[in-house]
Amino acid sequence: MQFDWNNPYPTVRTPVFARNAVSTSHPLAAQAGLRMLLKGGNAVDAIIATAAVLTIVESVSNGLGSDAFAIVSDGNGLHGLNASGAAPAAWNPEYFLKKYGDAGNGIARQPERGVDSITVPGAVAGWAMLHERFGKLAFADLFEPAIEIARRGHTIAPMVAKKWAAAVPLLKDQPGFAETFMPGGRAPATGEHFMMANAAKTFERIAQTKGRDYYEGEIAEAIVTHLQANGGAHTREDFRQYRPEWVKPISQSYAGHELHEIPPNGQGIAALIALGILQHHDVASLPVDSIESQHLQIEAMKLAFADIYRYVSDPRSMEVTPEQMLDPSYLASRARLISMDRATHYACGRPPSGGTVYLTAADESGMMV
């Protein structure tokens, strides 16, 4: 493979040529992944340990109630995992119409926060499924760093403190939030020490049961009891029946490269739509990061999001397929909507009928996640 090192972005950093690598937004999380690699684990072991620590060190941005999406390259192809949790079985239009509807026009809204915005968490089951298929180390070993950091505490990083403070006005009145995330009645400041001892106990049960306690045991019971006590429709059966799903990644070619994403209900298809649109504009002829170049990229993403906000949902209920959304003639028609003279507010189109946080790992065998 040939690389072009004429990078248009000046930097004092040099590439890291290593047999193993882990990258994410917090150093303690990346160190947890490297720790698994040093123990003889592979990239999947590393990514699970990294993800677990992120729920502690960036706990207001993501947590054990998260969803997870993963693409694994193991030398035999690409394997997609959709570990986004399902809605409670009791949710339907009538449920929301009764609780939040306007009797005059029959329109119901779904709240952005609170118990009626919470689906069954998928991340923990996703970690277990990834490990079952690809992991090398014992499942319990992967949670040692998260348990240690949760129990002994860690120092709050500047960006984490900023996001935490921004979350407080939005979440402070949610049941249970202040008790855990507002020690002293406020968000922790940069440099302050923060502990989550109860999270350490939760991780120990997850580690011991390969995640099943989260869906069938004491943890599941505690979650459902809390949700129901605050008006939620969740049941133990909702948690017990949940399983992540292996999916085939979708892709888009651009400039001699192939970009792969998880198919809907994930939103990665937005990047594929945008690249398909940009194929109809000569981005390469524009100076890197020029106003014209950025304008084209922004407009392409706006067009992509207009469609995914309208069409992307549970694939069993989507009106159109990913193939239709990526249809070349359809993307060409969308590309023609871009004006180089102005920004445009786009409505969704009609395809032909027919955070978060990011983390990645690679190991010396060539496995990448």
State the gist of this model:
By secondary structure, the chain is mainly alpha-helical. The protein is built from 15 helices and 9 strands.
Structural account:
It is built from 15 helices and nine strands. A hairpin with a 4-residue loop joins strand 2 (68-73) and strand 3. It has 369 residues and is mostly helical. 41% of the residues lie in helices and 9% in strands.
Rounded mean pLDDT score? 92
Could you state the order of secondary-structure elements as H and E?
A: EHHEEHHHEHHEHHHHEEEHHHHE
Number of strands: 9
Give the CA-CA distance, first to last residue: 20 Å
Largest sheet: 3 strands, antiparallel
Rg for CA atoms: 22 Å
Total helical elements: 15
- Give the structural class: mainly alpha
Task: Categorize the overall geometry.
Answer: globular
Read across the widest sheet, the strand sequence of neighbours is 2-3-6
Low-confidence stretches: none
Helix content: 40-55%
Beta-strand residue percentage: 5-15%
